[in-house]
Amino acid sequence: MTTVIRITAGVLAGAFCVGSAIAHTGASRPYDPSAPLTRADVRADLLAWRAAGYDPLDWLDYPENAQRAGRIVAAQRAQAAGSDCMQ
Hints:
Layout: H1 2-25, H2 39-51, H3 62-86
Helix pairs in contact: 2-3
């Protein structure tokens, strides 16, 4: 029984190591959240979120409307980045 537990622990440890290695290979993404934003970047983000339906004064539906707008903006940016790569 001890052999089965050791084999299972080894397989799980190996899987976690492989997953960690794969996660580190995708670390060179163009989006850097630690990079400083300009005032124009922040204003453009706010305009994009408002166009997606986010209202900063709607505190009753706050988490839902912010998450929905964030998903819409992310999808639009992904689509724009995908179309830029195709040209």
